[in-house]
Prior knowledge:
Layout: H1 2-65
Amino acid sequence: MGGRKAVEKSIQKSFGKAIPVIGAAIGGGMDWFTTQAAGKLAIEYYENSVSDWVAEVFGLCEEKGA
């Protein structure tokens, strides 16, 4: 029985050390995917709307200056 308990404790220690590493890998993967999604949305937003906004601002500036 003594050998079995030693093996069980060894396995418990291994799992105890592995769980934070596994959690970090999963958390890092989730962060990467969500950052990629947010980045794609930001790129799409700015590529499609900033030029309109700039044109509107310059249009207002031209109206006031004219």
